[in-house]
Design goal:
It is a single chain. The protein is of the alpha+beta class. It has 13 helices and 4 strands. It has 3 domains: 110 residues; 84 residues; 72 residues, no CATH class. A 4-stranded mixed sheet has the order 2-1-3-4, with helices on both faces. Helix 3 packs across helix 6, helix 7 packs antiparallel against helix 11 and helix 10 crosses helix 11. It is globular, with a radius of gyration of 20 Å. It starts with a helix and ends with a helix. This is ATP synthase subunit delta. It comes from Cellulomonas oligotrophica. Belongs to the ATPase delta chain family.
Length: 270
């Protein structure tokens, strides 16, 4: 998200943050209501285009979203109206902004309970547990499987042991994948938590576990490359033939054998 859309998101998030701090545990309800709006936007291209159309009067769009959220918390309605009154470079950016504010609301609940670090750790543990479970990952992404069944699978995997917010985020990623891989969605939330905690997370994917010395050395190298301290999360993936892949937000350093082979094929094809 760039330009006009980015500016609109930053402004809306600036208004949303103090609301969430005041809401405390009630922020979970606000997040769930915004998730419902995300689902409505994803289900209707015409609705999405209407609410993001700069040629339609802002008050008319605000009235429409108010009717859509009839019965919702006034704070949810207000921030949704702020979003639809804003300008967006693409209608998809509006949906992404609503989803981000929904996630921030859910995470604010964990923050108010002092459980944000636990949620971050649990989400990352889920991604590691799924590294060698290709069929499970496929099931969680496959749109032909009922959303309810995907959600129940996540409930089974968690076994009631995760923090409430972890369960909400993990289930949401399965029920409404929005075209993204399950692990990708969870890692996105981990990055968002790191942002809230004023840290940067780098995820390293490697074919075999790293030693403590290797992890320390790589953490230092990545931190210097990014210009700030990082938390290094290591994912072991048997599909990586060799080397490693480092990702921090949109920045990717890919030095795996598979990446080098792909580069070679592209050069040959060219």
């Amino acid at each position: 998200m760039r330009g006009t859309s980015r500016a609109s998101l930053v402004a809306a998030q600036g208004q949303w943050s103090p609301v969430l701090r005041e809401a405390g545990p009630q922020a979970l309800t606000l997040g769930q209501e915004l998730f419902a709006l995300v689902d409505a936007l994803d289900a209707s291209g015409s609705l999405r285009r209407t609410l993001a159309d700069p040629s339609i009067e802002a008050d008319a769009k605000a009235g429409l979203v108010g009717r859509l959220l009839d019965g919702a918390d006034p704070r949810t309605v207000e921030v949704a109206q702020v979003l639809v009154r804003s300008r967006w470079s693409a209608d998809a950016d509006l949906t992404e902004a609503v989803e981000r504010l929904a996630l921030l609301a859910v995470l604010a609940t964990a923050e108010s309970d002092g459980a944000l670090e636990r949620v971050e750790d649990e989400l990352f543990r889920i991604t590691r547990a799924l590294a060698g479970q290709r069929e499970v990952r496929r099931y969680l992404l496959e749109p032909s499987y009922p959303a309810q069944a995907r959600g129940e699978l996540v409930d089974t995997l968690l076994g009631g042991r995760a923090a409430p917010v972890t369960a909400v985020v993990a289930r949401r990623a399965a029920v409404a994948p929005r075209g993204r891989r399950y692990v990708t969605t969870l890692l996105h939330v981990v990055d968002l938590i790191a942002e809230l905690r004023s840290r940067q997370v780098a995820t390293v994917t490697t074919a075999s576990p790293l030693s403590a010395t290797q992890t320390t050395r790589l953490t230092d190298l990545v931190g210097r490359a990014l210009g700030r301290p990082v938390q290094l999360n290591v994912v072991v993936d048997e599909d990586v033939v060799g080397g490693l892949r480092v990702q921090s937000g949109p920045d990717v350093i890919d030095a795996t054998v598979l990446a080098r082979l792909a580069d070679a094929r592209r050069q040959l094809a060219g």
